[in-house]
Amino acid sequence: MPLHSLTKRLARLSLPLLCLVCLLIPVSKASADERIEEFASFVTLLPDGSQNVREEITVRAEGDKIKRGIYRDFPLRYVGPEDYDGLVPFKVLSVTLDGKKLNPNDVDKRDDVIRILMRESSALSKGSHRFVLEYNTALHVRPYAKYDEINWNATGVWGFFIGKFSCQITLPEGVKIDQAAAWTGKGGSKDASGVEISRPAPNQILVRPKKDGAFDRQLVPGEQLTVAVSFPKGAVADPMPAAKREREKQKSEE
Q1: Which long-range contacts (CB under 8 A, 24 or more apart) does 79-87 make?
Q2: What per-residue confidence (pLDDT) applies to 179?
Q3: Is 142 exposed, middle or buried (0-12, 13-18, 19+ CB in 10 A)?
Q4: How far apart are CA 146 and CA 131, in angstroms?
Q5: Rounded to two decimals, what is the model's pTM?
Q6: Per-residue pLDDT reduced to its tens digit, 134-148
Q7: Tens of pLDDT along 35-87?
Q8: Which helix (H) or strand (E) holds 132?
Q9: Nearest residue to 163 via CA among 223, 98, 95
């Protein structure tokens, strides 16, 4: 499948995992130094069609917008070709801050959005802090006539500069990646000039910033990294039947 086909699929937002970081305690003073120093996303597609995701986020806190921590918003409404009115499965597995375990159940779920609160009870010290978030989700593989595909909003949308960013996507053992593409910019951007894609293994890709002279590409506030990968049709199971059964069960209990 040519890359321009993947680009067209992106416009359909087959995986709109748009995420947002905001201040936990709003203040009016602008911050010049607070930023995301590094955002690394590791996505593992499992044989049952679900995904395990690990995000390593290093931020620089100055006590302005980042006080006790950060949060991430994930819209859970399913957007895809199936006639399905349920939410996307989503389970937080673990959260740590500088190696210390935080409460993975510290979330706020409203309608079709889950907010994961990664925070301490007291203010963070000024300087670098590393958050690690791990979660499972599903219903993000899209079936097409001759191939299956996953679109992944790897970084989400942040209100800070992102200095370094990367995304690694690993398919199940023995499943070879057919095509891969990546874009940076505002939502819907198809600008691939700022990234480079390598293949450490037949079932794995790694997306990183492309150097522009002496500088790597950075993401300005509001920009994001999106990655698309296609692979042989039927290489992983379709999780939709199980999701539909669970949805029918929920309806019967309402």
Answers
A1: 79/13, 79/14, 79/16, 80/14, 80/139, 80/142, 81/142, 81/143, 82/240, 84/139, 84/240, 84/243, 84/244, 84/247, 85/247, 86/243, 86/244, 86/246, 86/247, 86/250, 87/112
A2: 97
A3: buried
A4: 39
A5: 0.86
A6: 999 999 999 999 999
A7: 999 999 999 999 999 999 999 999 999 999 999 999 999 999 998 888 898 99
A8: strand 127-137
A9: 223
